[in-house]
Amino acid sequence: MGRSIYYFNPKTLSFEKKTFSWKDIIKRVLWFLATALAFSVVIVWISFYLIDSPKELMLRQENEQLKEELTRLNKRYDQLATVATDLQKRDDNIYRAIFESEPMPISERYPFLGNTQKVNSSTPTDASALLEEIHQKANRLTVSMAAQSRSFDTIVTLIGKKKQMLQSIPAIRPLPNCYEITSGFGYRYHPILKVLRPHTGIDISAKKGTPVYATADGVVSKQTPGGGYGNVIVINHGYSYQTLYAHLSKKAVKPGEHVTRGQVIGYVGNTGLSTGSHLHYEVIKDGVRVNPVHFFFQDITPEEYEAILKSSQQVNQALS
Ligand SMILES: [Zn+2]
Questions:
Q1: 258 pLDDT exceeds 60?
Q2: Cα(182) to centroid of ligand 1, in Å?
Q3: The domain containing residue 142 runs over which residues?
Q4: Which run of H or of E encompasses 76?
Q5: Does residue 66 form part of some domain?
Q6: What is the secondary structure of 123-167 as a DSSP string?
Q7: Please, which residues have CB within 8 angstroms of residue 167's CB and are 6 or more apart in sequence?
Q8: Is the separation of the CB atoms in 247 and 205 below 8 Å?
Q9: Average pLDDT for 67-86
Q10: What is the pLDDT of residue 251?
């Protein structure tokens, strides 16, 4: 059995009959199906791999945006790290310098320095690598900020100690209403011997009984130096400072007593080798007498200081 078709034969100029067997037909059908299958595979491949669906397109755009966001975040961390470094530099060079303290040890400030895993300097483009880098930077920033916080705690402690030290260094005038020095520090004529001799303190004329104030916190010394000082008080301030108040008419404190700056410790007098009612005041640093005028700075205006300094520089006769 088979099917026949007619076709035109140009040689004979007549229609001739051609008969197809079932085998031929099946072969043709199979050939057609195979071609169709191959064609559809090509179409499907193109649509899958070369042309994005709207959803894929959206996801791809979203992905790109996220990656851009990660890159921006990475750069933000770099900026934060710069700010943190600046803060550390200020801490080491300014705050700690003010309080005469060593900078925080490197190992304490940067504990991750021993870590061999290094941060990539070039910005990675792969999202997971970017995320990893951001995580690393965030961890480092957290560690250095914690170290910075500890450093500031240390500075707060130093401020407390410094306050105590500043409170123990002579800073005010022993007679608050003194605007002139009768006789200054350095070589002055001795009132009795009439020769130039070192004057180890300053003389401030005042009425007998005028209150004399401690110029810094300290403890009243047991020592009462002689040599014409008369009724004399020495205060030990610590930090290698001492002050001495001579020729007093009366003392208001006892040896061993703790005194604070501005406390009345005695009264002006004319005791010892003295040629008039006055206070002889000395500042001693590391056992050496220094010019007390340089220690007037807390309760004084620049103009008042200028006047006191000028009067103290006259090479006149000491009241002793
Ligand atoms: Zn004197």
A1: yes
A2: 9
A3: 54-167
A4: helix 54-90
A5: yes
A6: PP-SHHHHHHHHHHHHHHHHHHHHHHHHHHHHHHHHHHHHHHHHH
A7: 216, 217, 260, 261
A8: no
A9: 89
A10: 97
pLDDT tens digits for 155-164? 888 888 888 8
Q: Cα(319) to centroid of ligand 1, in Å?
A: 5
- 286 and 216 assigned to the same domain: yes
- Say if 174 falls within a structural domain: no
Taking the centre of ligand 1 as the mean of its atom positions, its distance from the CA of residue 281, in whole angstroms, is 7
Reported as a single tens digit per residue, the pLDDT across 206-233 is 999 999 999 999 999 998 898 899 999 9
β partners of residue 236: 219, 242
Q: How many domains does the chain have?
A: 3
* H helix or E strand, kind and range, residue 26: helix 22-45
Residues sharing a CB contact under 8 Å with residue 112, sequence separation 6 or more, in sequence order: 139, 140, 143
**What is the pTM (predicted TM-score) of this model?**
0.60
| Positive/negative CA dihedral, 22, 27, 33, 36 | negative
Please check whether residue 119 lies inside any domain of the structure.
yes
Give me the mean pLDDT over the 162-173 stretch: 92
**Ligand 1 centroid from CA 211, angstroms:** 17
Question: Domain check: are 246 and 291 in the same one?
Answer: yes
Q: How far is the CA of 125 from the centre of ligand 1 (A)?
A: 81
Instruction: Please spell the DSSP secondary structure of 276-293, one letter per residue.
Output: SSEEEEEEEETTEEE-GG
What's the gap in Å between 267 CA and the centre of ligand 1? Answer: 16
Structure tokens at 91: 């801490």
